[in-house]
UniProtKB/TrEMBL annotation, chains A, B:
<keyword id="KW-0238">DNA-binding</keyword>
<dbReference type="GO" id="GO:0000976">
    <property type="term" value="F:transcription cis-regulatory region binding"/>
</dbReference>
<comment type="similarity">
    <text>Belongs to the Fur family.</text>
</comment>
<keyword id="KW-0804">Transcription</keyword>
<keyword id="KW-0678">Repressor</keyword>
<protein>
    <submittedName>
        <fullName>Transcriptional repressor</fullName>
    </submittedName>
</protein>
<feature type="binding site">
    <location>
        <position position="91"/>
    </location>
    <ligand>
        <name>Fe cation</name>
    </ligand>
</feature>
<feature type="binding site">
    <location>
        <position position="129"/>
    </location>
    <ligand>
        <name>Fe cation</name>
    </ligand>
</feature>
<keyword id="KW-0805">Transcription regulation</keyword>
<comment type="subunit">
    <text>Homodimer.</text>
</comment>
<dbReference type="GO" id="GO:1900376">
    <property type="term" value="P:regulation of secondary metabolite biosynthetic process"/>
</dbReference>
<feature type="binding site">
    <location>
        <position position="93"/>
    </location>
    <ligand>
        <name>Fe cation</name>
    </ligand>
</feature>
<feature type="binding site">
    <location>
        <position position="100"/>
    </location>
    <ligand>
        <name>Zn(2+)</name>
    </ligand>
</feature>
<keyword id="KW-0963">Cytoplasm</keyword>
<dbReference type="InterPro" id="IPR002481">
    <property type="entry name" value="FUR"/>
</dbReference>
<feature type="binding site">
    <location>
        <position position="137"/>
    </location>
    <ligand>
        <name>Zn(2+)</name>
    </ligand>
</feature>
<feature type="binding site">
    <location>
        <position position="97"/>
    </location>
    <ligand>
        <name>Zn(2+)</name>
    </ligand>
</feature>
Length: 145, 145
DNA sequence: ACTAAGATTGAGATATAATCTCAATGGAGA
DNA sequence: TCTCCATTGAGATTATATCTCAATCTTAGT
């Protein structure tokens, strides 16, 4: 079991819940993937690997993973909700290609700072944000893709 | 008929389409509202006012309004898709209250500039973006609401 | 005014994503 | 072992949005 799964196990057990095979299976699949993945895709992967985890369990486990802080739920807009693991990932936002659907990440600490200021000015207490830029990725503009 | 409806009429007719009573009705309802409104809410309003515009027509007309540039479709995340008219509205982003659901607008031109730079660095050709900050509005933090 | 071509409409079917229900299962502690 | 309660899967349900298609309008041409 990898380090992230172990952390998840600890989280689960610290809440007095059970680290079941189904939960482990879902968690490991999430941690193993290095792409943004949506819940239905994840379910399909698991099914094709012979796991019997049901849709309900997949969604429930994803909620637990998000709760634990090990996984982040990202709203890419256009109905795309994906998950990414947080380990070793500093905060970033997303560039979403409207042609090929690919998602790149980018960091811009100053944007975060400006957001803070905007919130102060508006007397708004921020807890999180979502910034997506839509357009065309390199491959889709150079015609090489 | 107000100026925005007139502009919409012009847009519709410039495309060789018909400015039907249904389309007028939907457009005027959108232009009359000063809040962000979602499609189902709009449909309900129209029904309660005796309009017979169907769901299909409401959605279709909203698409036309967005196409025309007079209305913008905003993805507030969490499955909330709302529409706002653009007339006299400079570009802005949104502060979404997680408690009362209210939506405030804010402007921060520098953020836009930084986004441009981030795109350049990534060889990404932006066409639009969506920035929502989630948290608690003034009323919901001071306990006055 | 008549007609043909094509735009528009509403009702309801369909699609999609996610959540909920509930009976059956199974682990943990007394 | 027994009891309690967490967990599960199958399928029902909800919510939102889009699609289908026959009926109805509009308009242009005659």
């Amino acid at each position: 079991m990898n380090s992230e799964s172990l952390q998840f196990k600890n989280y689960i057990e610290s809440k007095g819940l059970l680290f079941t095979p189904e939960r482990q299976c879902v968690a490991e699949e999430v941690f193993a993937s290095h792409n943004h993945m949506d819940a239905e895709e994840l379910l399909k992967h698991l099914k094709s690997k012979g796991s019997k985890a049901s849709r309900a369990t997949v969604y429930r486990t994803l909620d637990l993973l998000v709760e634990s802080g090990l996984v982040k739920k990202i709203d890419l807009g256009e109905g795309r909700l994906v998950y990414e693991h947080t380990a070793g990932h500093p905060h970033h936002d997303h560039l979403v290609c409207l042609k090929c659907g690919s998602v790149q990440e980018f960091e811009e600490p100053l944007i975060e700072q400006l957001q803070e200021w905007a919130c102060e000015k508006a007397n708004f207490k921020p807890t999180g944000h979502s910034l997506n830029i839509y357009g065309y990725c390199r491959g889709c503009t150079t015609g090489k893709r």
